[in-house]
Amino acid sequence: MQKLDPYAALRIREFNIFLIVRFALVIGWSMQFLVIEWQVYDITNDKLSLAIIGACEFLPAFFLAPFAGHIVDKKEKRNLFTLCIALFSLISFGLYWLTSETVESNWETKNILFGIYGLVFFGGILRAFFGPTIFSLIALLVPKSVYPNAATWSSSTWKGAAVLGSLTSGFLIAWIGVHNTLGIVFILVMISLILVLQIKQKPIMNEAANESVKESLKSGIKFVFNDKVILGALTLDMIAVLFGGAVAIFTIFAKDIFENGPKGLSILNASLSLGSILTMLATTYIPITKNTGKKLLIAVFGFGLSMIVFGASKLFWLSVTAIFIAGVFDGISMVVRQTILQLKTPDDMRGRVGAVNSMFVGSSNELGAVESGIAAKIFGAPLAVILGGTVTLLTVITMSLTNKPLRELDLRDDVQEHYDDVTS
Question: Considering the entire predicted model, what is its pTM?
């Protein structure tokens, strides 16, 4: 049996460069997300404006994802990743410019809002490509025998950057203002753009050169929907994020319920991410390949239950604790899902499967923001969170009763098979 090496993926130079690039990008993206939400809500004081932000990013990310997956499978991954980062830098600079004193003093408020919404929409287009590109690139940087370890470190890096971005953004808004904070975001994106060029170009794994777009999209979606394990894992995470998540309305809790301002917003966001990253780091020493399906079901159930406690709480630090525990379960869920996808997806379909993953999970963040904003407008923020957590619990119970392959999933044989292929 393969001996567990918690640092296996980190022994590969290009994977380390990739982690640094992803760390800088996610810090910038998470900071930008919070800053823009705070700025828009501060301007409008309307809960529905948070839903509009989510819709602007969700619509292009969701509907373009299948086509993005097709393109990713056909193109060289390093160059495509570089192009995505370069275009993201334009969005970051645009937001930095829109929040400058010159624009604010010469433009009407509605025009500034339209400009922000437009750049967020452009970001949604990029999101359709970022997910499948990153998913495909990871598989080209490390051997299959260390996919679970690479998935853990990649997810940990993502969450670690989210912790830092979430924790610092609120304080930076209070200390140096929205405009200067977005300037820092732009610098981080430019750093990642320089570093990504240190990764060599990779071979294109999809050899079906004559496959039409329609055939390509059909085969990718058919693969996911015919695999009960992958479909179940994606569905669980989608429901948890779509209904159980409350990140998009943390601003309402921080400003209106707990009255802690941007600092309280940072603490709430950082608590969720901190719980996730601590769990992810633990999984580098404690493998999740044993009883994988049961661990996923328990993790999503625990996440939903924690969100119910958060919604019902009237005490700030109790809410922070509940969010931290939700983050712990979210970390387990993320590592398990990424490991399942990496081990169960053929090399020539990684772009399309990554795109479907973006549609299920990535885009559900934005759609979840729409749902959360509308639900908060109708029911109030606390009840909206409680209802979302309840839907998550009911989904887990249903999935555990109806999806036997997922419930009984154990990945130890898959990992050992790849390890034997490498060492034989």
Answer: 0.73
